Amino acid sequence: KLQQLYNGPRKLELKPDGVIVANVVENKKDGRDNISYHISKDYRVTNVQFDDEFEESWEALADEGKLPQLEGLTYAAQLRDAVTYWTDSGWVTEGELRALENPSE
After folding, report:
1. Using CA atoms in the order 39, 40, 41, 44, what is the torsion angle rounded to 10 degrees?
2. Cα(37)–Cα(84) distance, integer angstroms
3. 57 vs 14, more confident
4. What average pLDDT does range 79-96 have in this prediction?
5. What whole-number distance in Å separates Cα of residue 37 and Cα of residue 68?
6. What is the C-alpha separation between 49 and 21, in angstroms, rounded?
7. 56, 49, 8: which is closest to 31 by C-alpha?
8. 8 Å CB contact between 12 and 20
9. Which of 12, 61, 79, 89 is deepest in the core (most CB within 10 A)?
10. Sign of the C-alpha dihedral, residues 2, 55, 48, 19?
11. CA quadruple 67, 6, 84, 20: dihedral positive or negative?
12. Residue 18 three-state SS
């Protein structure tokens, strides 16, 4: 049995449009990928997707009160916005960068 004790990238894919997809395993016993982070040519995370098994796991945690109750797309956006980068000014999240770039949203 393959078991990872911590989450981590399983493989990186370079798409024809230049987008990098980082497939990540979140402590699954079978070792299959279950979260995909889509990274632009500018090395910014633009999208996060996850499989049904991952969604079932976090919904179970939400039912137990360990995570907030959220719809899937909202949770994916929160995962995207929580990605943290190092810049010449220090640490910043994707969500903070998006807020600076689009202050009206």
Report:
1. -80
2. 13
3. 14
4. 95
5. 21
6. 10
7. 8
8. yes
9. 79
10. positive
11. negative
12. coil
Strands 45-50, 35-39: pairing kind: antiparallel
- φ, ψ dihedrals at 15, nearest 5°: -80, 155
For the record, the structure tokens of 19 come out as 């987008």
Single-letter amino acid, residue 96: E
What pLDDT score does 39 carry?
A: 96
Buried b or exposed e, range 65-94, using 16+ CB within 10 angstroms: eeeeeeeeeebbbebbbebeeeeeeeeeeb
Residue 104 has pLDDT above 90, yes or no: no
Kindly tell me the sign of the dihedral angle through the C-alpha atoms of 21, 27, 29, 35. Answer: negative
Q: How far is CA 15 from each of CA 10, 39, 55, 94, rounded to the nearest angstrom? A: 16, 10, 25, 21
Both tokens assigned to 23: 């497939």
The span from the CA of 37 to the CA of 46, in Å, is 8
Name the residue type at position 90: G
Give the list of residues 6+ apart from residue 79 with CB closer than 8 angstroms, or none.
35, 48, 50
